[in-house]
Amino acid sequence: MFNKVLIANRGEIAVRVLRACKELGIQTVAVHSTADADAMHVRLADESVCIGPPPARESYLNIPQILAACEITGAEAVHPGYGFLSENARFADILAAHKLTFIGPKADHIRTMGDKIEAKRTAVRLGLPIVPGSNGGVEDVADARRKAGEIGYPVLIKAAAGGGGRGMKVAESADRLEEAFNTARAEARAAFGDGTVYLEKYLAHPRHIEFQVFGDGRGAAIHLGERDCSLQRRHQKIWEESPSPALAPGQREEMGNLVAKAMAELGYSGAGTIEFLFEDGKFYFIEMNTRLQVEHPVTEALTGLDLVVEQIRVAAGEGLSVRQSDVKFSGHAIECRINAEDPATFTPSPGRITYYHPPGGLGVRIDSSAYQGYRIPPYYDSLIGKLIVHGRTREECLARLKRALGEFVVDGISTTIPLFQKLVDEPDIISGNYNIHWLERRLASW
Ligand code: ADP
Which is deepest, 32, 265, 342, 432, by most CB within 10 Å? Predict the structure, then answer.
């Protein structure tokens, strides 16, 4: 096992990783920008190193500075969290070249899955069903028009290097294709420095259901069930739950075993998430994330496993602590992403938290970096924490969520807590009858 791990991230996920390290008896190193000197992850770590000014590209994305921090502190491994350098294959390669361990999958797998066109090809090879589409990039508008005609409208134009819902545009019909194609390509170029786009059939009413997988680094892989992440705004998840209200009995095992087998065949190592759209009882692969997900605590609630501990074990060569047959799923869990945003307009609301009271009680977990007096800097993601609630049934879980949201007080800034308070009372949410378009439509009518 490692003696010292550096956490190349900030916010709630840095705190989350620190907690796992501490329980494993591993010394922790936090890195931070000058804007984050007072952040919780810096306070809780054994050591901390300032790695640059507020802009992420000069601090949290600054590879030479992170390497220097490893060298100064003697850290042997780096946990990248999610976002920032977590899906940067070059970073994984550079760490290896410096005899440091990247707590994540092999660089080649990050590279393959980071290119969505390549990822879909790999999925086909591994026997996973994919969304019908252009089978590769599209060259220009004429090519897109031809392929869209074959696929059938509406089509979705997606960035090969995509992420965070950017570079994605729907063309409802042929006369909208050119504009959608050009916008998607421009957005992809601006966001990822790569304008390669591809086409996919735009599914009318799917749910987003993803499977948590884990490769043990020794040739075997397991699955840890699914998460339903259909409640989204601008293709970004805000609420995740498990089990999915839409899965029929046996579907978890069937699909879970298929993805676990695929990951074993790939020789995948560490945590990963295989994302599918699910419509009319069928699964369609869209992408794979080669890292820990924001919503991983939902899986932890059901399985009792600590996913960060498992990541660290695999990276240290110790394999997983469980086999597939040891994994049991219990009850129901829901996660709400609490953002420092106006709950109606979603404009970011940085500033000082003047009063903070998180909820508690049975089955209530808060993963957050917030505290009373903390000043949320304006430079980063607006996620300030996650509320994860677990109950024996979905009904109990919803009642507990409503109770917990009622206790949650964050003053001085706006948060998305009031949005979730509305959602828990919605008949469609109570019945579990929602798809990826539900939230945007509901928001438009509020
Ligand atoms: P990103 O990596 O940018 O998050 P994804 O491929 O994971 O992109 O898709 C994000 C979300 O966009 C999905 O959860 C879903 O809501 C929507 N989406 C993606 N592909 C399709 C599709 N073919 N049809 C309908 N919606 C889609």
Answer: 32
pLDDT band at 164 (very low <50, low <70, confident <90, very high): confident
Q: Does 340 score more than 90 pLDDT? A: yes
Check pLDDT > 90 for residue 339: yes
Residue 10 appears among annotated catalytic residues: no
> Which fold is adopted by the domain 4-103?
Rossmann fold (3.40.50)
- Measured over the CA atoms of residue 348, residue 57, residue 107 and residue 285, the dihedral's sign is positive
Letter string b/e over residues 89-128, b meaning 16 or more CB atoms within 10 A of that residue's CB: bebbbbbeeeebbbbbbbbebbbbbbbbbebbebbeebeb
200 lines ligand 1 (CB under 6 A): yes
Note the pLDDT tens digit of each residue in 372-424. Answer: 999 999 999 999 999 999 999 999 999 999 999 999 999 999 999 999 999 99
**Closest CA relative to residue 204, chosen from 155, 241, 136:** 155
Give dist(CA 159, CA 285) in Å, integer: 16
Determine if ligand 1 sits within 6 Å of the CB of residue 131.
yes
Residue nearest to atom 18 of ligand 1 (CA): 235
Does CATH number 3.30.470.20 belong to domain 207-445? yes
Amino acid at 90: R
Cα–Cα dist 420/410, whole Å: 14
Of the candidate CATH numbers 3.30.365.10, 3.30.1490.20, 1.10.1040.50, 3.40.50.300, the domain formed by 132-201 belongs to: 3.30.1490.20
For ligand 1, atom 13: residue with the closest CA: 235
Q: What tokens were used for 132?
A: 């019908």
The per-residue pLDDT for 165 is: 85
